[in-house]
Predict the 3D structure of the following.
Amino acid sequence: MKTRSNHPLAATALAVLAAALAFGAWAQQKAPSAANEPIQPIIPVPVKDPAKVELGKKLFFDPRLSRSGFISCNSCHNLSLGGTDNLKASIGHNWQKGGINSPTVLNSSLSIAQFWDGRAKDLREQAGGPIANPAEMASSHELAVGVLSSIPGYRAEFRKVFGREKIDIGEITEALAAFEETLTTPNARFDKWLKGARKALTRDELAGYQLFKNSGCVGCHNGPAAGGTSFQKMGLVEPYQTTHAATGRAGVTGKDADRLTCKVPTLRNAELTYPYFHDGEAATLTDAVDLMGRLQLGRKFNAEENAQIVAFLKTLTGDQPKFTLPILPPSSDTTPHPEPFGGK
Amino acid sequence: MKTRSNHPLAATALAVLAAALAFGAWAQQKAPSAANEPIQPIIPVPVKDPAKVELGKKLFFDPRLSRSGFISCNSCHNLSLGGTDNLKASIGHNWQKGGINSPTVLNSSLSIAQFWDGRAKDLREQAGGPIANPAEMASSHELAVGVLSSIPGYRAEFRKVFGREKIDIGEITEALAAFEETLTTPNARFDKWLKGARKALTRDELAGYQLFKNSGCVGCHNGPAAGGTSFQKMGLVEPYQTTHAATGRAGVTGKDADRLTCKVPTLRNAELTYPYFHDGEAATLTDAVDLMGRLQLGRKFNAEENAQIVAFLKTLTGDQPKFTLPILPPSSDTTPHPEPFGGK
């Protein structure tokens, strides 16, 4: 009597099935579907209103939004440099030292809130801040509106985008936010791997990602931006020793317990956004990984582990926003003059 | 006896000839060949070495050529703003007030020399100046070379362009100059008129050009750049009253007679390059035309004449350089850190 298992064809079929299952499990491990991973691919935000984005791009590059006529959004969120200035502390009006490291504008639309302390609920609310901050662009919303309203090229463009004659600060920040929403960085090697390109990452980079997951880094650095999804205290396990004045989230909540609690920064393009942390105290990814391991996870990564995590982080560099440098409409004879040197 | 002049055919031929001559004179006046005009069309410089131009573009936008990591060539020669900063005096390292108005980089390759006082013979020699000027970018040639040599992306690009491992300041300035040479602005409405497009200029603009020629402005503002071809004393007829410290050409020649002698600035894109003069004292084209008329020509233009000349000057705005914002290669762990705040 023949059993099915003894049938040569059945045996072959079983072997094939087993091989297929094994291959499937292996393939899943090696080339996971993105759905199973704590970091998701960056999906570019569709451009809804190209004219508004174009206007916002001009404003982003326009130093006339500052009192000096010298500082634009792009000065501290330099799109040639990963959307940051690569300085520990930014330089504001009259060379004032900024109170906090400039976070990258890249993928910032993916954050739960804006600024390190999350005091702005979205990009639009954020954009009004630096313009009027005396330590940053040192203008005022009234002056910014006055400057733009005096420029015929801007008047025409605002009219086209918003359908009315009068420019106001809400339109300015809305256009800036519309441009900033386009500043996503898809197609990182890690995203290609997430989407199934098994050879997109090296063995060391994959080992780094495993460490990143297994050590708990993903507890905070998750989602498409590998960060930006929560507020966390810096120094969970071991206190962060600092004399830096930033109060973090406490400035928003009023709770002393929230001191040194900050929005978790995105790790997208971390290769480009040095130095790290709200105080810019970590000059390199190696330093940042070491400190985070000890302070947040109570774990001292050895040199090999650290290098593997750094290698993984560098796979998060995506396509940088690619666009033509905007040409700005000239001022008119009635445009308020910039005042770089005390109004003289 | 018939004379030739009485022959009906001969009379017709003569009339046709006379009409043709009259038409020719009229056509020449209305749509002159550029060869007859003191201002010539801008002819773009052919790009000889695209890789060198690309490298130069990156360097032009790279603030790491400054000690602070904040000031790039584009900070004061902003290609979104007509190749200038639109400030009376530029802002240098530590917010120092610049000694002289930043001239536009647009069409600068057409000048006989560089800087207001012509102390650099060409763009390459010029490019080394601001990098090492303590009041401007405040770096040094040694530091700039050190910074770029520490950046793998730059090392590869310099190797590709110059064919050797070692980066030196000569290569840096050569690449910058190669990029700057591409910054011409062809196709101004005036150039279209020069090339025969009779309707490219309005009646007022043409009247302004006639005034510009007949009053003697073209004596200095001539050639393709409408300037940049000679050094001239500011205040030829009427002395220029100023307390500004700039010595002008005297600083180069050592002759006191050359005080307030400067390179004649280009008028190309004058609509964009406000404020005017080496001290930036003229805020508007109206002011500049008025002062030039009185000081250089002993002529007080009335309001209509002034407006016509200004209208003509605005026809010199050409196509602005159009290119993708460069993405800069990231620093490495060994890159010297920027020192915006006294090296702290």
